[in-house]
Design goal:
Layout (H helix, E strand, L loop, with lengths): L16 H24 L18 H80 L5 H8 L10 H11 L5 E2 L8 E2 L1 H10 L9 H4 L4 E3 L9 E4 L7 E7 L2 E7 L3 E6 L7 E4 L2
Parallel strand pairs: 1-2
Antiparallel strand pairs: 3-8, 4-5, 4-8, 5-6, 6-7
Helix pairs in contact: 4-5
Length: 278
Amino acid sequence: MSHTAHIPSHRKPRQSASKTALRAGVAGGVLSTIAVAGAAGPAQAEPVTQTIEMPTITAGLSTSVAASAQATQAVALEFETQAHEDAAAETAAKAAKKAKAEAVRKAEAKKKAEAAAKAEAEAAERASRSAERTTLSASSDSSSSSSSASSFSAPSSSNATGSAAAVIAFAQSQIGDAYVSGGTGPNSWDCSGLVQAAFGSVNIDLPRVSQSQSTAGTQVSLDNLQPGDILYWGGAGSAYHVGIYVGGGQFVGAQNSSTGVVQASLDYDPPSGAVRVL
């Protein structure tokens, strides 16, 4: 016996042939499968379809959208109303401005007319006083009664006809009425107010003040006067007194606050010029 016979062997025990064959077959199958898969190439991925579920509008959301629409409509209506109000306010402001300007214009025109009438009255008063002083001086050698008779006379008939006769008749019917600055009748007059009313009685519209009346018709010579002509004292366009020629060298006029409306001789206060309207 060998001296090593009693030492156990460390080699693995041999496997049986059947187990070895089984392991070889399994390994071969696995390798064949890997080879076939590698030859076939990478596998194609199948498309993935994803379904998204849309949210459902609830009743609360519908109510919110409707309320928002109503609010937008209300804001739009408010803006439209405000625009109409602004336009109306602008129109009213323009109308008020225009009315104010017209009122100011009328007030200024009235003020000018009153100033002109006042100036006319003052000028007539001064002219009358001057004329009276001249008359008194010229008649100092005669009696007072004779002087009075030559200055003023009762209404006398004239050869006027038609509209001229009507104008003269109206003027003479006012003799004895008071003189009042700015007076236009029926019982008190200033000089231009009487002339305007006399011609108005035959539907002839004359300007209100003596300055304008002195240029209202055709200028005529004092040597060629006809009944119904308008006499003026001062310059044409700047006259301070007017009267109506009644014929026979006499006129009717609202002279001053002392005499009122009188009929007098041209010699009492010779006029500067005359215009013919009729």
